[in-house]
Specification:
The complex is a heterodimer of chains A (459) and B (193). By secondary structure, chain A is an alpha/beta fold. The longest helix of chain A is centred in the first third of the chain and has 23 residues, at 19-41. Chain A has helices at residues 8-15, 19-41, 46-62, 64-77, 88-101, 113-117, 120-126, 136-143, 160-171, 180-197, 223-228, 249-261, 291-296, 311-315, 317-322, 333-343, 360-364, 371-384, 390-404, 406-422, 448-458, and strands at residues 81-85, 106-109, 130-133, 200-203, 207-209, 215-219, 233-239, 243-244, 269-273, 281-287. Chain A has a domain at 409-458. Chain A has 21 helices and ten strands. Chain B has one domain: Rossmann fold (3-Layer(aba) Sandwich), CATH 3.40.50.10420. In chain B, 23% of the residues lie in helices and 24% in strands. Chain B has helices at 3-14, 33-43, 54-64, 126-129, 146-152, and strands at residues 46-51, 71-73, 99-103, 106-108, 113-117, 132-138, 142-143, 160-164, 169-170, 178-179, 186-192. In chain B, a hairpin with a 4-residue loop joins strand 4 and strand 5 (113-117). The longest helix of chain B has 12 residues, at 3-14. The chains are: A alpha/beta (459), B alpha/beta (193). Strand 9 (269-273) of chain A pairs antiparallel with strand 8 (160-164) of chain B, so a sheet runs across the interface.
Chain lengths: 459, 193
């Protein structure tokens, strides 16, 4: 990817070159958001569930060290090997060391956004390990040599004809075949061969229970189960924030997760792994990779409550019209935009600005993360730390100064209205980024302040 | 310092002040559970039948599925129509199974899911590797929501267990729903009274 275009608005420009595709992307995600609404409104207790989930997660954050130790000790007692990784590099090395120990160089992986965050596939490829993603959407983007564009719907940006072309090249389907039924059947046959021949399965983790040492993996396709129940070795990788205190808390989160994600009442499979099956080896890798730093940021620690449902993406007017790849981060959309600057403020300084701050993300979040407030707060941190472009910083300083001087503010408003009235081309030109894709409104005759003063005088 | 100790130390110094766990206190209704379960399970792609005997299930199975193909079951009552002795086989050898017949511990009305712990399947792979899946749900074991499901199964010992809701599915290609992603292409549920 070109470094120069690696900011959200530049990448969104590329996505926006095809207007009908943007409309299609926008409508598809809005359709999913509507399904979410229907599912949520079907439960009178929805708001109580959200509040309960949010409070449970707050308790997790305030006792995370104890829950981690409790989970480790219970998982060990269940016969699972527990590893700790401070960062992405350690995570990748741990996975590789398990592969090496078993002399395995071909493995299968079901959906795990953590491994995307750690760029595990690239690392393993460089070390001569073949990784096959077994979630259909992930397999499609893998064949296209792209990252997922959505955490729940990895190839939501792809048309079926493009998928047909990929399958024609890689899986030998007929040229021009684009029927989802036929393409899914081709993937089923291809991945079945993978399931029965690969010896190691890596999965993500949706929830891990401190009380029992078990972890839960949710899929619709059944790929995590197909892979893990056949493999000799199962590795489950999780961020440390995936812990929940007790088994009964699963009921709260599982009721919220899929209704928020796709509008389904639950995923087809909610698989609880507690012990390896006889003769199998099971590993868990607990990964920090910046999470403990985020835990220490008072304004941003709530982002660690995220259960990765993707509802904030489906509802976001910016995400829907800019596509997941414009966020140049493993996790796109509003939640990705508050997680990414924690990892690297400089590289992801653009993301908190990729929002209208409309608040829709916070309204749909099943664990009540104050996403849009955090986006607003990140902007302030990024400006203070000097991570925004000098032009943007200067503009913001000028605006702050204007707002702090009422007389100058009033003058500036009047001057603006006059300029807009007589010389609209000063504003309405291609050099002004605000004019792009917008029609400027006709300038009002008077400001609100003038109108207010006049109204008052009449009373 | 090991990564484990580093992570735990960082959590201790960065975590917020103590916040207590909330009570899970969600209102519940026990009305029309079988109807609700049937309706939701059907909506997510399963076929649901209320039956009164194993014999009735067998006769339906002969009607729906090809008895010449490989059937496996977790219940000894099906040993005349299916293989039931699978505890010690290599799971890979089940790749050609056409039909798996298993029994759920309980089912959940709100989402059409059935709880199937390891003890209820001859091998963990059995409900996944088959082309078609049959789940028998005892009629008096349908609970309203997941909260009751977890209450009833609290403290139960299992190495593995799953909530199974509908046939394996995907909508990854342009949101078109396709049944039979990697696992069973169909799910048939018998509510046995």
């Amino acid at each position: 990817m070109n470094v120069e275009t690696k900011d959200h608005s530049g990448l969104a420009d590329i996505f926006n070159q095809n207007e009908s595709r943007v409309d299609w992307h926008d409508e598809t995600l809005w359709f999913i958001r509507s399904k979410r609404d229907k599912a949520a409104q079907g439960l009178p207790e929805w708001e109580l569930l959200r509040e309960t989930a949010s409070q449970i997660k707050h308790n997790v954050l305030s006792n995370l060290d104890e829950y981690l130790e409790q989970f480790e000790s219970n998982a060990k007692a269940n016969g699972i090997t527990v590893h700790w990784a401070a960062n992405a590099k350690e995570h990748n090395e741990i996975v590789h060391s398990i592969l090496k120990k078993h002399n395995i160089n071909r493995m299968m992986k079901s959906k795990s956004m953590l491994t995307e965050e750690c760029h595990l596939n690239d690392y393993l490829k460089k070390n001569g390990v073949e990784v096959i993603d077994t979630d259909l959407g992930e397999r499609i983007v893998q064949l296209a040599d792209e990252p997922p564009s959505h955490i729940v719907l990895p190839c939501i940006h792809k048309k079926k004809e493009e998928i047909g072309d990929l399958f024609h090249v890689h899986l030998g389907t007929a040229a021009g075949e684009a029927d989802p039924q036929v393409l899914t059947e081709a993937a089923r046959q291809h991945l079945r061969e993978t399931f029965v021949t690969r010896k190691l399965s890596l999965t993500g983790v949706n929830f891990a229970v401190a009380e029992t040492g078990e972890f839960v993996v949710c899929t619709n396709e059944g790929n995590a189960d197909m892979a893990s129940h056949l493999a000799d070795v199962h590795i489950a990788c999780m961020g440390i924030e995936k812990l929940i205190p007790q088994r009964k808390h699963l009921s709260v989160f599982l009721r919220l997760l899929t209704r928020s994600a796709t509008g389904q009442p639950i995923t087809t499979y909610s698989s609880h792994f507690k012990k390896p099956r006889a003769g199998q080896e099971m590993h868990i890798v607990l990964v920090d990779n910046g999470r403990t730093v985020q835990l220490g940021r008072e304004d941003f620690r709530n982002s660690l409550k995220c259960i990765r449902c993707g509802a904030c993406m489906n509802t976001c007017p910016v995400y829907r019209r800019s596509g997941g790849h414009s966020y140049h981060n493993a996790i796109a959309g509003p939640i990705g935009s508050i997680l990414a600057p924690n990892l690297d403020m400089k590289e992801y300084a653009d993301l908190p600005f990729a929002s209208t701050l409309c608040g829709s993300c916070s309204n749909v979040c099943p664990v009540k993360i104050d996403i849009h407030d955090q986006l607003y707060k990140w902007r302030q941190v990024l400006v203070k730390e000097g991570h925004v472009s000098p032009v943007k910083a200067m503009g913001m300083r000028a605006m702050a100064l204007t707002f702090s001087m009422p007389k100058f503010f009033s003058f500036a408003g009047k001057a603006g209205r006059t300029v807009m009235k007589y010389f609209p081309s000063v504003v309405n030109n291609k050099l002004n980024p605000w004019y792009k894709e917008r029609e400027m409104p006709a300038p009002p005759k008077q400001s609100f302040r003038e109108w207010y003063a006049k109204e008052r005088a009449g009373k | 310092m090991s990564s484990r100790d580093k992570i735990l130390a960082a959590v201790r110094s960065n975590k917020p002040g103590q916040r207590d766990l909330p009570e899970i206190n969600i209102p519940v209704s026990y009305e029309g559970l079988t109807e609700k379960y049937t309706q939701v399970a059907t909506a997510i792609g399963a076929r649901v039948y209320s039956v009164e005997s194993i014999a009735e299930i067998k006769s339906k199975l002969n009607e729906f599925f090809d008895p010449a193909k490989r059937w496996v079951a977790s219940l000894a009552e099906f040993s005349d129509v299916a293989e039931t002795n699978l505890a010690n086989v290599d799971p890979h050898s089940l790749e050609d199974v056409e039909l798996s017949i298993i029994e759920a511990v309980l089912a959940v009305a709100e989402n059409g899911a059935s709880w199937v712990p390891e003890q209820n399947v001859p091998q963990r792979i059995v409900p996944f590797i088959c082309q078609h899946l049959v789940i028998i749900v005892p009629a008096n074991k349908i609970v309203p929501t997941l909260h009751q499901a977890y209450e009833i199964t609290a403290g139960a010992e299992y190495g593995y267990g799953a909530f199974i809701a509908g046939p394996s599915k995907t909508a990854d290609i342009e949101q078109s729903l396709v049944l039979g992603a990697h696992g069973p292409r169909s799910l048939t549920i018998f509510i046995l009274s």
